[in-house]
Write a structure and sequence with these properties.
The complex is a heterodimer of chains A (295) and B (252).
Chain A (H helix, E strand, L loop, with lengths): L1 H47 L5 H5 L2 E2 L4 E2 L2 H32 L4 H15 L2 H15 L6 H25 L3 H9 L4 H30 L2 H4 L21 H10 L8 H32 L3
Chain B lengths: L4 E12 L2 E12 L3 E5 L6 H8 L9 E9 L2 E2 L7 H7 E4 L10 H12 L6 H11 L3 H4 L12 H13 L5 E5 L7 H14 L4 E5 L3 H7 L2 E6 L2 E7 H6 L4 H7 L5
Parallel strand pairs in B: 3-8, 3-9, 6-7, 7-8
Antiparallel strand pairs in B: 1-2, 1-4, 4-5, 9-10
The chains are: A mainly alpha (295), B alpha/beta (252).
C-alpha cells in the first residue's frame, strides 16, 4: 500500500519535472528572441546615439556626405513608404475581396493564389530590376518617387493580400448570411458588414508591409534613390535620397567610409526609429478602430 | 391559384453537386398560417426553407429544377433578382446572429440600405421592437451593442430586424434550438402573435413545438415530402405509417 502511494508520488514528480522542463525550454526560446532584438537595438543605440542631434535630422549632408545631416533621406523614405502603402493597400485589399468574396473557388483561383505566393518569394532585387525596366524606362517615369513607390507597392502586395484574405475569412459567415437575407446586396454587405469587421486584421498586415517598404534597399536602388541630392523633391517625378540606400552608400561607396562610421550608425538608428514610428501610428489607428467597433 | 396560397412549389428537385437533396416536391404554403417542416436530420427541410428566399444561391455547385411560384412568378427565373425576393421573404437563423452593431443599428441597417421605405427610422425601430416583444427590455439601451444581449433577446432582435423589412413571409430555421426553455416559450408566443400579419414557415426538430405553434405540418424524409396536412391531423391520425413512426419517436 505504502509502496503504491510512493510510486504514485514519484510519477507525479516526474511529470511535474517534465512539464517544467518543457516550459523552461519555451521560455528560453522567447528569451533568446528578445535578447537578440535587444542586442541589436542596444548596439545601434550605443554606436549611433552620439551623432543624433537636431542638426543631424534637420540638415542635408555636407562635405561629400562626411558631415551634416540626413534630412533628405528621412523625408525620402517617408515619401516612398507612404507612396507604397497608398498603392499597395487599395490594390491588395481589392484583390483580397475579389478572391474571398466574389471569385468562384476553383482552378483559376488556385492558380492566382499560387501566383501571389510566388510574388512573395521573388527576391527584392528582382523587383528593383522590374521597376527599372517597367516604370522607369518603359513608362518613362524616370528614377522618381512614383517609380519607387510603385515598385515598393508591388513588393508589399502579397503581404497585404495575404493578411486581408485572412481577415476577411475570419468574419463569420453568419454576418454575411444575416445581411443578405434582409435583401441587402452583396456589395453593400461586403462594404457595410464584412470590411469594417476585417479592417483591424487588414491593418495588421499592412503594418508588416510598411516595415518592409521602409527598410528595403534593392527595389529603390534603380527606381527612386539618389546617391546624393541636397534639393528636396518638388513632385513625385523627382528623385529622392532614402535611408536604406544612404546607409548602403555610406558603408560601401562613400568618399571616406571610416570617417562616416558614426553617421552610418546614426542613419541606421533613424531608419529603425522611422520604421517603428510608422508601425506605431498604424498600431494606434488599429487600436482606435478596435475600441470604436461598436459591439 | 387559390387566393390563400402565398407560395407554391411544383416538382422541385434540388442538387448539391451530384447529390439530390430534394425529390419532386410539390406543395402550397398558405397565407397567414404557421407551417412547420419536420423530419429527421438531413431530410431536406432546411434546404427547402433556404430555397424559398434563394439563400442556397450562396452555396457553390447547387442546382434547382422545377418552379417555386411567388406572386405569380417563378423566383428562380433568370429575370428575378434574388435581392428583391429576400426583401419580401425574411429569414431567422438557427443561431442568433445579430450584427456587431448597436441594437438600434441592427434594426435600421436593412431599411436604411434598401432605401425604398425610409420613413421615420426611429418609429420603425420602436415599432418592430414592440412587435418582437423586446421593446420594454431594450428601450433604454438602444445604443448598446447587440452582442451584449442574452441569446433569447438576440434571437428576438433578429426577428425584429427581419420584420423591419416588412416582409410577406418569415422563414425560421430552428429558431429556438440554441435557446433555453423560457426564451423558447417567448419566441413561440411571438410566432403566435406574428401570424396575424405574416406567413410563417418554420423548420423545427422539436415535435412538441410543431404541434404547439403550427397550423399545418409537412413531414420530410430522405428528401421526399411524405405527408403534408393540418397539424392536428398529422399529430393525431397521420395517413402514412412513416409519419406516425417519426412523431411517436420510433425513429428520427
Amino acid at each position: 500500500m505504502k509502496h503504491a502511494i510512493n510510486n504514485q508520488i514519484n510519477q507525479m514528480k516526474w511529470r511535474y519535472f517534465r512539464q517544467s522542463a518543457f516550459f523552461g525550454l519555451l521560455r528560453a526560446s522567447a528569451l533568446i528572441i528578445t535578447l537578440a532584438l535587444g542586442g541589436i537595438i542596444f548596439y545601434i543605440l550605443y554606436n549611433g546615439l552620439s551623432v543624433i542631434s537636431w542638426e543631424f535630422i534637420s540638415k542635408p549632408p555636407t562635405h561629400s556626405m562626411t558631415k551634416g545631416g540626413i534630412m533628405p533621406a528621412i523625408l525620402g523614405t517617408i515619401y516612398l513608404t507612404v507612396g507604397a502603402i497608398s498603392i499597395g493597400l487599395p490594390l491588395g485589399v481589392a484583390s483580397a475581396i475579389y478572391l474571398t468574396e466574389y471569385a468562384k473557388q476553383g482552378k483559376m483561383i488556385r492558380f492566382i493564389k499560387v501566383g501571389i505566393n510566388c510574388l512573395a518569394g521573388v527576391p527584392s532585387v528582382v523587383f528593383g530590376l522590374f521597376g527599372l525596366a517597367f516604370f522607369v524606362i518603359l513608362f518613362k517615369f524616370g528614377s522618381s518617387i512614383l517609380a519607387g513607390s510603385l515598385t515598393l507597392g508591388f513588393l508589399i502586395l502579397p503581404t497585404i493580400i495575404g493578411a486581408s484574405e485572412e481577415a476577411l475569412k475570419s468574419v463569420p459567415q453568419t454576418f454575411r448570411e444575416a445581411s443578405l437575407a434582409l435583401g441587402v446586396s452583396k456589395w453593400q454587405t461586403i462594404y457595410r458588414i464584412v470590411l469594417p469587421n476585417a479592417l483591424p486584421g487588414i491593418l495588421t498586415g499592412s503594418i508588416l508591409g510598411i516595415g518592409r517598404a521602409a527598410g528595403e534597399t534593392a527595389p529603390i536602388m534603380f527606381t527612386a534613390a539618389a546617391y546624393f541630392t541636397a534639393k528636396l523633391p518638388g513632385s513625385i517625378f523627382d528623385e529622392v535620397m532614402a535611408l536604406p540606400y544612404h546607409i548602403y552608400v555610406l558603408a560601401t561607396a562613400g568618399t571616406n567610409i571610416e570617417a562616416t562610421r558614426p553617421i552610418q550608425y546614426g542613419t541606421v538608428l533613424v531608419l529603425v526609429a522611422v520604421v517603428l514610428g510608422i508601425n506605431l501610428i498604424a498600431i494606434l489607428i488599429r487600436g482606435y478602430m478596435r475600441r470604436h467597433k461598436r459591439w | 391559384m387559390d387566393a390563400n396560397v402565398i407560395i407554391s412549389l411544383n416538382n422541385v428537385n434540388f442538387y448539391y453537386g451530384q447529390n439530390r437533396a430534394l425529390t419532386d416536391i410539390t406543395m402550397n404554403f398558405r397565407k397567414n398560417k404557421v407551417t412547420a417542416l419536420i423530419g429527421p436530420s438531413g431530410c431536406g427541410k432546411s434546404t427547402l426553407l433556404r430555397l424559398l428566399n434563394r439563400m442556397n444561391d450562396l452555396i457553390d455547385d447547387t442546382r434547382v429544377e422545377g418552379d417555386i411560384i411567388y406572386e405569380g412568378k417563378n423566383i428562380y427565373s433568370p429575370d428575378i433578382d434574388p435581392v428583391e425576393i429576400r426583401k419580401k421573404i425574411g429569414m431567422v437563423f438557427q443561431k442568433p446572429n445579430p450584427f456587431p452593431k448597436t441594437i438600434y443599428n441592427n434594426i435600421a441597417y436593412g431599411p436604411k440600405l434598401t432605401a425604398s421605405n425610409t420613413g421615420d427610422i426611429n418609429m420603425l425601430v420602436e415599432q418592430t421592437l414592440k412587435q418582437a416583444v423586446l421593446w420594454d427590455e431594450v428601450k433604454d439601451i438602444l445604443n448598446q451593442s447587440a452582442m451584449k444581449l442574452s441569446g433569447g433577446q438576440q434571437q428576438r432582435l433578429c426577428i425584429a430586424r427581419a420584420l423591419a423589412m416588412k416582409p410577406d413571409i418569415l422563414l425560421m430555421d430552428e429558431p429556438t434550438s440554441a435557446l433555453d426553455p423560457i426564451s423558447t416559450a417567448k419566441i413561440e408566443e411571438l410566432i403566435e402573435e406574428l401570424k396575424k400579419d405574416y406567413t410563417i414557415i418554420i423548420v423545427t426538430h422539436n415535435m412538441q413545438q410543431a404541434a404547439r405553434i403550427s397550423d399545418e405540418t409537412a413531414f420530410f424524409y430522405l428528401g421526399n415530402l411524405i405527408e403534408y396536412n393540418k397539424t392536428e391531423k398529422i399529430f393525431t391520425k397521420p395517413d402514412v405509417k412513416q409519419t406516425e413512426d417519426y412523431i411517436t419517436g420510433r425513429f428520427g
